């Protein structure tokens, strides 16, 4: 399952992309699929129809992970915040 991330590349605008898996410490590069700008538009620096980009670690400042996947279940983590009121009065 793909992991949606924001890649912060040196001297460029951040790029939203999908990674097959989070990079390992032994990796020399990051393979990004479906690269696009934050607003969803295509990147002007890439040729039309490019689906995969390989960035060396030396060009990446940091990576923001937008969704995470539990390895055991394969499901996406959900944070549910609910508001409720407990009625202290007994009927």
Short recap of the structure:
The chain is 0% helix and 34% strand.
Characterization of the model:
The chain has a single domain, classed as Roll (SH3 type barrels), CATH 2.30.30. The chain is built from no helices and 5 strands. The protein has a 5-stranded antiparallel beta sheet with strand order 4-3-2-1-5, with no helix packed on it. β1 and β2 form a beta hairpin. It is elongated, with a radius of gyration of 19 Å. The termini are far apart.
* Rg over C-alpha atoms, rounded to the nearest angstrom: 19 Å
Alpha-beta classification: mainly beta
Number of domains: 1
Order of strands, main sheet, comes to: 4-3-2-1-5
Helical segment count: 0
- CATH structural architecture: Roll
Mean pLDDT: 83
Name the helix and strand elements from N-terminus to C-terminus, one letter apiece: EEEEE
Strand % is 25-35%
The CATH topology name reads SH3 type barrels
Fraction of helical residues: under 10%
User: How many β-strand runs?
Assistant: 5
Largest sheet: 5 strands, antiparallel
**Quick one: CATH class?**
Mainly Beta
Described by the principal axes of the CA atoms, the overall outline is elongated
Low-confidence residue ranges: none
| Cα separation of the termini | 50 Å
């Amino acid at each position: 399952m793909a992991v949606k991330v924001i890649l912060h590349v040196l001297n460029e605008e951040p790029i939203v992309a999908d990674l097959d898996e989070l990079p390992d410490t032994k990796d020399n590069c990051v393979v990004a699929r479906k690269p696009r700008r934050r607003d969803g538009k295509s990147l002007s620096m890439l040729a039309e129809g490019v689906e995969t980009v390989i960035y060396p670690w030396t060009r990446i400042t940091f990576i923001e992970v937008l969704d995470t996947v539990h390895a055991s279940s394969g499901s996406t983590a959900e944070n549910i915040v609910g508001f409720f009121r407990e009625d202290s009065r007994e009927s």
